[in-house]
């Protein structure tokens, strides 16, 4: 009887100790919690449990801001991270996200490129001094690096030859989410037979199977595939911009759902831009897309009554109709934004706050943060030692002016005959939870 009572006391003490541990850990930043995952197996299991995540969220629901960055995915001579937000309360990071993109390889590396980012994980391409190539899916904050094997029927030499092919694109990454956690991902390579075609071939690596497979998809009609190098992932769906008429001026968003596709021509959706066949004479910049507050977003600037208006739409349907877009903002900059000037172009939307748009001002050589609701804007320059953002985060800018000057001619609609047109930026946004890389399913 005495022995049984002792066991009950020990069990109660253990339960009390675990409850205290939960309360203490839940009041820490995610950076500290991630570090404590490696203390022991019991702590890792506790932190990774649904119970602890839900409890943490209940205590920190008001802490909405998280760190994020605008990553350079085009010009490899510039920094990987051109704009960074760090110092948010939830993650507790003192350094910008770009500083976490480092990894110690066994051999010296001559080039590392960010191909795309989604849901806190990154697809990286690396070349060694010896010329070997590697693809990694990375959780930079947890320093988890997983090397994606090449397709079994392709050698490294074959992949290099594909990369030299203008019809091959290796920049796709989508995730499968459950309760805000990444439970799977797919790396997507895209191949088209020619620039103008209705056919697409996807080579897909799945974290759930650890294997590659090939899918052939046909669109309703032929498109100019000049912009497949840069894709926008969202909810397991990849989005590209493409053209039905002029290869240099995209007029459609092409989307494919890699977790719920039905195949055939219905699997690959063609969605015309909302200003398709309208505003053609007044549109200032070529079309491009980004994400914000849970939507794929299209923003552009239009000439209007001798001035300019900013118009922003969000994608609410994947039907082949301009009404798939919903107009979110229409702002006359002449009447409400005195002092902003006219020489600016849109960069990205804020990933969480759909009221905030980032513009690059060429005449002021700075990044403009514009609140579309209040019409207030702030100018941030690289020369500033510290840029405080509205939610208390610190904003750092590196190589932005040189970079923006290089891409401006490609954005400018009146120069459609010169230069390539691509999506130049990828938003690396930290999730609201740790999101460790999914393990290979057994």
From TrEMBL:
Residues 16-55 form the F-box domain. SUPFAM superfamilies: F-box domain (SSF81383). Pfam families: b-prop_At3g26010-like, F-box. This is F-box domain-containing protein. It comes from Arabis nemorensis. The lineage of its organism: Eukaryota, Viridiplantae, Streptophyta, Embryophyta, Tracheophyta.
